[in-house]
Amino acid sequence: MKRLIRWLVILGFLGGLGFLVTGPLGRYMKERNRVVYRDAEVTRGRIAAVVNATGTIQPVLSVKIGSVVSGPIVKIYVDYNSDVKVGDPLADVDPKVYQANLDRDQANVDSAMAALLSANAMWDTRKAEVKQALARRDQASNDKERYEQLQALNKNFTSATEMDKYTYDLKSFEALVDVAKASVKQAQAAVKQAEAQVKQAKAGYDLSKTNLGYTKIESPVDGIVIERKIDAGQTMAAQFQTPELFVIGKNMREEMLVFAAVDEADIGYIVEAEKTGQPVHFTVESYPDELFKATILPKTGIRMNSTTTQNVVTYPVVVSAPNPDLKLRPGMTANVSFQLREKESALRIPNAALRFYPQRDQVRPEDRHILENKPQAASDEGVAATPSAQEKAEARRHRNRRHVWVVDGDFLRAVEVVTGLSSAHHTEMVAGELVEDQKLVTGIQPKR
């Protein structure tokens, strides 16, 4: 009996001790295994949707300056980064050969002009001879006509021999007129030939003068010398290909262009942003703390020529930016942000909350169907069917219907929202039951 009582006391003691231990221990283990969620608040503020792209900075126009004539460079007036205006000298080619050619062609012009003057004088002489021959012919004709009239009045007034003489003189003078006219034509042809020789000589002179002018290489635009590819004393050969001497960036202080490569999926948004006049901003690695503002070039900024690289299609979009301090240099890489739309006071959901995807056992039972994958439609042969274009478009129209998660007791509750604009950190809520400062689950805290 005593032994039974002793065992009952021992069992009661152990049972009480177990109750005292398992209660707090159970609560401790439950608390230790409880999932701790990271959260973020719904806020209100500015949100802007952007498309990001990478581009290269280039001048509005890069003018490559060459030389038309060959010869040694005797002088260079500019160097790298030199500011130049239209007509400023850049370099000189040795002009000796071209000056000699010009002097030779000038002598040819003078000789041709002298020949032309001589031909004109001869032409004038021949025309005077024609006039003289015509006068003598007319006089002979008048004499013959007068003697014919007198003979008609009196047949014995003149003899036949005298009449033959007047007839012979008239024919002789007519022949002299024909010869004089032929001489005039020859003189006129000589004048035309002399005029052609003068034109040819002047053309040669103009060519030599132009080549002599080409020995002075001048800037065709206002800009900055980006590159100099020749030194004084170096000889150029321009017979087959124009050598490149300088590269000048036009108006680099006024404007620089950024050639950005935009993905084909975003080019439609860029077109709409250009129509509404949305701003463009970009940064460069040389000045990481400075934000540069730009605008899309009107009409020609969004270009049609696509580029395909590893099956990725991009389109060039050209934006213009001022450059008064010359901070933007040719070849710099620009990180460009094209603003699509903007709202100043929008209810903003953290993007981390939209990306969070809980486990099934963490969600309350009535919301677990959201996590279930819908079965894919199958064709008659049992192969998964590819969605049609209409189905894809319909799915795209409903892509803004999303779910976020809030803590509801020991589980998570889904809240359906309709999203709008999206930035790097926030997304606009267009419709939904969320309020400002409400906490949304963004992740799970790691256990210690």
Can you walk through the features of this model?
There is one protein chain. With 448 residues, the protein is α+β, with helices and mostly antiparallel strands. It folds into 4 domains: 111 residues, no CATH class; 104 residues, Beta Barrel (Elongation Factor Tu (Ef-tu), domain 3); 58 residues, OB fold (Dihydrolipoamide Acetyltransferase, E2P), CATH 2.40.50; 118 residues. It is 38% helix and 32% strand. It contains 6 helices and 20 strands. Strands 2-11-15-13-12-16 form a 6-stranded antiparallel beta barrel. The chain is elongated, with a radius of gyration of 51 Å.
What does the secondary structure layout of this molecule look like, with pairings?
Layout: H1 2-33, E1 37-41, E2 43-59, E3 62-66, E4 71-76, E5 83-84, E6 89-93, H2 96-153, H3 160-214, E7 216-218, E8 223-228, E9 235-236, E10 244-250, E11 256-263, H4 267-275, E12 280-284, E13 287-296, E14 307-309, E15 312-321, E16 333-350, H5 351-355, H6 389-397, E17 401-408, E18 411-422, E19 426-432, E20 439-444
Antiparallel strand pairs: 1-20, 2-11, 2-16, 3-10, 4-6, 4-9, 5-8, 6-7, 8-10, 11-15, 12-13, 12-16, 13-15, 14-15, 16-19, 17-18, 18-19
Helix pairs in contact: 2-3
